[in-house]
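Tokens for Annexin. Go.
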Amino acid sequence: MSYPGYPPTGYPPFPGYPPAGQESSFPPPGQYPYPSGFPPVGGGAYPPAPSGYPGAGGYPAPGGYPVPGGYPGASPAGAAPSYPGVPPGQGFGAPPGGAGFSGYPQPPSQSYGGGPAQIPLPGGFPGGQMPSQYPGGQAPYPSQISTDSFPSYPVFSPVSLDYNSEPATVTQGAQGTIQPAAHFDAMRDAEILRKAMKGFGTDEQAIVDVVASRSNDQRQKIKAAFKTMYGKDLIKDLKSELSGNMEELILALFMPPTYYDAWSLRNAMKGAGTQERVLIEILCTRTNQEIREIVRCYQSEFGRDLEKDIRSDTSGHFERLLVSMCQGNRDENQNVNHQLAQEDAQRLYQAGEGRLGTDESCFNMILATRSFPQLKATVEAYSRVANRDLLSSVAREFSGNVESGLKTILQCALNRPAFFAERLYYSMKGAGTDDSTLVRIVVTRSEIDLVQIKQMFSQMYQKTLGTMIASDTSGDYRKLLLAIVGQ
């Protein structure tokens, strides 16, 4: 999937989306692979998040980010700054010094929204070589069945946008733990899965070996090959053989990325109560193109309007923030306007710390419209204007879900992998495990920036992500999670 305007043409398309100009070769509307194969959207197949999640809205308590003790050497509440990659005394975004904030490095050049960190070349594939598993590529073996016709793409066509405003830019440092498998053969993999589920018992290790080492696009082809070869639905077969967290993880891995995000949003708002943390995690961290595709998928698959559902399930300033997010209209220009950053910092100060009460609409306007690099510069300017970091000011001026949402946007501007590393940590910290959050982040980031998330996790918590997953999970569920994170 391409990410328009940030920089336009600057990122290769997300795996599983049609290259520009080839939309006609993908399945027509109505043939999306998942209307029936997953747990009912409001069903109980997915465990509820534990109530003991830290702080309002699932984030550490006000008074500085993160909670005291959350990061080694963290500044006390109110001290600036307090987020990984942000050394004290240098302003946000300055290169870390030798003794600064325990040396949490910021990625060399943050990939806003992810995507493989390579220069996109004509044809939309990194490195210019069109992989064999994409339509139009050569099949690896002459004897292999053509899998080009297997439906592995969303039926909704990408939104038409103007790609001409900025040149392509090199982005470094974003890398997933799962790469497309070389010498991929969808029929062979389908046969392995069939044998693993045939007869008495299930060979879960065979399933783990196949699923964890294939990209999402390749999994879609396996699913289509399975139905072609055996006349059976792979997802239904897997559901009948698996249960609990292992089932949830396998089903998530077989959902196309956009569908999984749309499904997660629908599940978060279905029935009594709303899982606000899920709405924040998805809507406040995705790119414009991703959000627009999610909105279209939500409508086509569930027959519902995402914005209307958000309005009916949320209220107040939190509702306004999420409605702003689901427009998918954030500026995605890579260039930073430092004068604008200074002006925005002054506006934010006058809307919060510099007055009695808070002008919430000013915070919403700036944080919902400015690009992530622009916001990073604004945070740096704010620390000079207010002598306080913007994250702690948001904690002082807001509370609850809107505070969590605004903080998420700022954290993604400063260090996106650190945000997801922290979410993973709190999904496993303390008694019980928030398995839905653990599964969702590991799966959705596995082909984008999970390598960087693992690095930040180790620096922030002095233990590896794999170690914490191994101590909090068990059985085949643990094996598959560890295989995905690369342990």
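The chain has 19 helices and no strands.
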